[in-house]
Amino acid sequence: MQQFEVSEILWDSWGIPHIYAKNEIELFHAMGWAQAKSHGNLILMLYGQARGRAAEYWGSNYIDTDRYVRTMGIPDRAEEWYEAQSDKMRTYLKAYADGINGYIQAYPDEIPEFLKVVLPVSEVDILAHIQRVIHFFFVVNPNQIAALSQGEQMAGSNAWAICHPARGANAPEHSASQKAMLLVNPHQPWFDLFLWYEAQLTLPNLNAYGAALVGWPTLGIAFNDYLGWTVTVNPTKGADFYELSLRDGGYEWNDGICPFEVKSQTLKIKQEDGSLREEPLVVLQSIHGPVVAKTESKAIALRVVGLDRPYLLEQMWEMVNATNLSQFEASLQQLQLPLFNFLYADTEGQIFYLFNALVPVRSQSSQDRGDWDYWQKVIPGNTSDTLWTQYHSYQDLPRVVNPPSGWLQNTNDPPWTVTFPTLLKPEDYPSYIAPSNLGKMPHNILRPQRSIGKLLNSDTISFEDMVAFMFSSRLELADRILDGLIAAVKTYGSELGMQAVKVLESWNRHANADSCGTVLFIQWVQKIELDNIFATPWQSDSPLETPCGLIDPVFATAVLEEVAADIQSRYGMLDIAWGEVVRLRIGNQDLPGSGAGSIFGSFQVLDIIPVDEKIFQAIGGNSFMMAIEFTNPIRAEALTIYGNATQPHSPHVADQLPLYVRGQLRPVWRTQTAIRDHLRLREILDISSGLFIQANG
């Protein structure tokens, strides 16, 4: 066990804080300090919103945010969560908040005055922010509530765990290095509460490296000297909408009438002259949860899992400190996090998968009530038969350890395809736990199939292979239908159609920046719509090869010619490069983009929106990327695509983006020798003041 004379932050040339602390309190303090230095403006904005007071601070643009936060009860519940914390975790939360406040106190000119209204941040603010992120964006989000529909997940990810050669019948050939490996590749928006923050946390008995969501005091994806893990968003149903029939001032419940619990609040909205306007907010609470929509005769109430589980930070800190699979699983068994798949690998060569979720024990009292599809709808709320009050145990969740295949993967697909041939069978679990097959997720079939195909068809995979595939933008959709489209146009097309065919025939079927044909193909898919393309839908007897084929060649030809005419008009050419049209614009960077949306079957995911008639801009997709090989010492490379800071004058805003464009990760520096070779700033904690003081060397 090493000892440290001082607690310090070593900042490397990429703006990554390497924290060396004498104890946990000083480590959490340093984490708060470091995040305030890198993301101070964003943290104050996020914490102000989590209080439900953003409109009071910054005006009417935030009134909808405040209504949502208050209706969901986040501020009051955060107070309750804080009271429930252990003394140890309260101390850690205070240290983290002190670090944020201390940095802003030391460098007040770095934070605009309009944000300082949030100061000082408190321990409760941290818990409110975490609750808003996890339960009210990942489990259910405002757009889903507005539509009263769960829909497909708002965020995605890729993850692999590859076995040590001693594990499993086929594993000896699978890892080229004969060591376990982990691919970390969450896909999220490149803004706001979704941003990752890369950091190293080191104590005398801990050396952990990974990423935390901004505003979080501990790592959410990480590895230490023994093990590592990553997460993907899983297709779990953690929020239900219940329809209530209104009568006599309440709602029908079993054989009677149940009154609402009424909570009256006042929202304050800052006006342009600085005065505050007040607006009442009345929240009706049913047995199910808060009412989120209402007519004269009906109301819709929302029930969300995990609001009674306040210890998720403590669980995550235990995960960071675990040294073997048994300890890691013991942490997971607390089931404090309401969602996320976990993929794990370690130095012993073990790999592990868990479909982690708080799954309600739902009624299956009638034939149509127990399946996944039923619970995607608005549920009758007039009877206790449909009201869940308990969760399935850890033992009920889909789980795989050291599969014979030698690998595990998840790309937001259901648990049944975590390895192949399949080990987990949907019939062994409640039918509402997850979609029963890939066909139930029509907009996320092709990326899982591409991931599985790569692993299934590779005799060995090296560290370099794994990194290269993270940047693979080959479109699985093109492999399924492009030949049919070309044949159709040659049969039914006009001269313009034949010009388009020439472009598509010479296209490499990738969405690389220099790929010519991607614009034409993707805009054709968007025009015709994915649901109207395939002749053969997904089939259980061909789970990796379907859907496929072109359903209507004549219509497909007509749409391609329409799209070709539009592209010719806008760009003056049909074979314009993808990166000329799709741009990566962050900070002062404006670079060509590679990658495409998940629906096209690209492993390298890039989500884009139109800027004008010609240009699209990336707003999300690949975000934090890391490849880990559990050698001795551990080998790791990483990339935080948008950079490790958002403060306006930081040199680390988008400084890693050129590496992403070149398809490169950076080496992870974990030893003091390596860090000092790339050191840019050293800050030492002064115990008397609670501030980190800049030091030489």
UniProtKB/TrEMBL annotation:
Cited InterPro entries: Ntn_hydrolases_N, Pen/GL7ACA/AHL_acylase, Penicillin_amidase_A-knob, Penicillin_amidase_dom1, Penicillin_amidase_N_B-knob, S45
Keyword Hydrolase recorded: yes
Gene3D superfamilies found in the cross-reference section: 1.10.1400.10, 2.30.120.10, Glutamine Phosphoribosylpyrophosphate, subunit 1, domain 1, Penicillin Amidohydrolase, domain 1
Domain of life: Bacteria
Annotated keywords: Hydrolase, Signal, Zymogen
Family to which the UniProt record says this protein belongs: Belongs to the peptidase S45 family.
Protein name: Acylase
UniProt organism field: Floridaenema aerugineum BLCC-F46
Lineage start: Bacteria, Bacillati, Cyanobacteriota, Cyanophyceae, Oscillatoriophycideae
